Amino acid sequence: MIDLRLLREDPDRVRASQRARGEDVGLVDALLSADERRRSSSSRFDQLRAEQRALGKRVPKASGEEKAELLRQAAELSAAVKSADAEQDQAAEEAQSLLLRLGNVVHPDVPVGGEEDFTVLETVGTPRDFAAEGFEPKDHLELGQGLGAIDVERGAKVSGSRFYYLTGVGALLELALVNAAIAQATAAGLTPMLTPALVKPRAMEGTGFLGQAAENVYHLEKDDFYLVGTSEVPLAAYHMDEIIDAGQLPLRYAGFSPCFRREAGTYGKDTRGIFRVHQFDKVEMFSYVAPEEAEAEHTRLLEWEKQWLSGLGLAYQVIDVATGDLGASASRKFDCEAWIPTQGKYRELTSASNCNEFQARRLSVRMRENKDGKQVTRPLATLNGTLCAVPRTIVALLETHQRPDGSVTVPEVLRPYLGGRDVLEPVAK
RNA sequence: GGAGGCUUCGCCUAGUCUGGUCUAUGGCGCCGCACUGCUAAUGCGGUUUGGGUUAACCGCCCAUCCCGGGUUCAAAUCCCGGAGCCUCCGCCA
């Protein structure tokens, strides 16, 4: 959630942000007046309650006629307090529900527009020229099947469309990727974490996934659990309701977990292979920092992503995602898109978001620091970035490093995690 | 699944039986000041969190003793429901 003080003092900035996101600008004014009602009803309650307490203190000291009179007045006040309390609760609830619908205020440098209106910040590496090498690249599924690495037919038989098995060398490849990613993150000082994949509503809500993104989240009705779409959720909620000493910051984690996505509204998109699936594993980086450090941290996360992709020998571009394509929690988002040879375009492999204080306010994660000789508490900033989303990385790897005979060269960084193997060979059918 | 115990302002803790100066005790930690050649030690003071009021500060008011209801003029304290943690039993990877 955003800072209500900012909303009161500079509502135009919030309106502009909503407009840029292509979201309801009227929400800002609805929230302003709901906040007004919340404050006035709360004042009314506070005042009545103060009277009630003052009167209550006199009761035990009085006696006889006087006491009877006090009790009569107190009973009246008691009723008034009760109704003021109910009014206050209702007003607070209304303001809160409006506040939760409001997305983060976007960073001023973010390009305005929809999915196609991103800015390319940088291009790294050169897409491999298969025509010059004289052969037609196979797509990841054909390659994966040849290697005995991917089985989508049985995935569909057992679980339906967008499910798959990683088999044999495919399974080993995932484990190698995950180990290499965790090793890189650990070397950079991040704390490796294995996180829950089922979370309570508060964690999901606080991370910002129950607004517009709600239709993409699996929910277990009977137990009221949500399946996480990323370990960002359990990592953000890890410090929920805590106050962290400024000296402990930054806190950096590398979470590994399965990720579940309903992929609603993507009917017919990326139906072949394992590019877009309902369940996959991912290594995710997550940082808690002081708000003034957030932008520098955002760049840092991006650098670690670039280091990872470059190490895998992939060609990619970095984009500044446009306002209309930002998640509710993000003020700015950088995606790394890797070149997929058979698609002839760059596709998203990683994504780093700066949520500044937005998630921390919702989850009540604060920092305590010494300012001018006084201890102050304020929300901190959270950021997240993909290190390795396994299936998409496999797609890019197989296609990029394939050879004419259907074998695939293993990038050097992965070899130690594949028993020294430097090439994956097709298996006999 | 069954039985019992626990949950208080960063951490530990007093208070709950017997409702009202609980405006929540003490210790640790932390912050400030003093003393000191420096450090340590010591002394004094401060230190829950959130909301409101304020241009801001000071101050003041309200809420907050795991959460939600209830009883009462009045709830940390009594009653009901729930959550989490711990111990034991059962089942189980």
Write down the CATH class of the largest domain: Alpha Beta
Shape: elongated
Major β-sheet profile = 8 strands, mixed
Low-confidence runs (pLDDT<50, min 5 residues)? none
What quaternary form is this? single chain
CA radius of gyration: 27 Å
Strand residue content: 15-25%
What percentage of residues falls in helices of 4 or more residues? 40-55%
Annotation, overall tally of beta strands: 18
Strands in their spatial order, largest beta sheet: 1-11-12-13-16-10-9-4
CATH topology of the largest domain: BirA Bifunctional Protein, domain 2
Q: Please give the domain count.
A: 2
Distance between the termini: 55 Å
Helical stretch tally = 13
What's a quick, concise take on this entry?
GO terms for molecular function: ATP binding; serine-tRNA ligase activity. With 429 residues, this protein is of the alpha+beta class. It folds into two domains: 4-101, Serine-tRNA synthetase, tRNA binding domain (Helix Hairpins), CATH 1.10.287; 119-424, BirA Bifunctional Protein, domain 2.
Please give a handful of descriptors for the protein shown.
aminoacyl-trna synthetase; Helix Hairpins; three-stranded antiparallel sheet; BirA Bifunctional Protein, domain 2; single chain; 429 residues; RNA-binding; elongated
Describe this structure in words.
- It is found in: Cytoplasm.
- Belongs to the class-II aminoacyl-tRNA synthetase family. Type-1 seryl-tRNA synthetase subfamily.
- L-serine binds at residues 230-232, 261, 284, 384, 386.
- The protein is of the alpha+beta class.
- It folds into 2 domains: 4-101, Serine-tRNA synthetase, tRNA binding domain (Helix Hairpins); 119-424, 2-Layer Sandwich (BirA Bifunctional Protein, domain 2).
- It has 13 helices and 18 strands.
- The strands form 5 sheets. The protein has an 8-stranded mixed sheet. It has a 3-stranded antiparallel sheet with strand order 5-7-6.
- Helix 2 (11-21) crosses helix 3 (26-58), helix 3 (26-58) runs antiparallel to helix 4 (64-101) and helix 6 (140-146) packs across helix 13 (390-400).
- It is elongated, with a radius of gyration of 27 Å.
- It starts with a helix and ends in a 5-residue tail after the last strand.
- The structure holds one RNA strand of 93 nucleotides.
